[in-house]
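[job 4471] stage=fold_predict status=RUNNING
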Amino acid sequence: MSRRNLPNHDQDTHPENPQSRPTTGSLGKGEPVFIAVGFLRRAHGLHGEMIMDVLTDFPERLPNRKVFLGDARESQQIRSIRPYHNAALVTLDGVDTPEAAARYRNTVVYVRADQLPPLPEGEYYHHELLGLQVVTDAGEVVGILEQILETGANDVYLVRRADGTELLLPVVEEVILAYEVPQGRIVVRLQEWG
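[job 4471] inference complete, writing structure tokens
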């Protein structure tokens, strides 16, 4: 689950594109928003365990928690999770055989955004920032935050300008000045590159 300030704690990475951060549902009122927290690759062993790519910084919060599987958002509960190489082994309630586990092969695991734990003041999940207006410290509208790219050293914001062009902004203190989420904006200082 990702947040701003600044480790990523809402890691909703799609397996085919680790730069993406899928959320689904409406970011407006009414329809729930789902955040990807894992990707079930395949069955492992004889007791229904599955190998899951972990897409959250908080996998320890997943056991005994309601999750939603795949595009159909099938409601399920993770019974257990344990580290396994660069992934995790998980078991789901009622899934006790390799055949039952095979049903969930290549399935994204989601949680509802409204069930995420609160973050400390001044920190935000990625889905809370997407769609915010980006403005300069002089009040000039730059565009809308469309995507957050994880590059390793720091995140990069992809901002869509009114004319349709893209602007990439590194998430560093010199560029990102303030998060004014209640007002629906992020304040930035555009750099002059020589």
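[job 4471] summary: Residues 131-188 form a domain with the SH3 type barrels. fold (CATH 2.30.30.240).
[job 4471] exit 0
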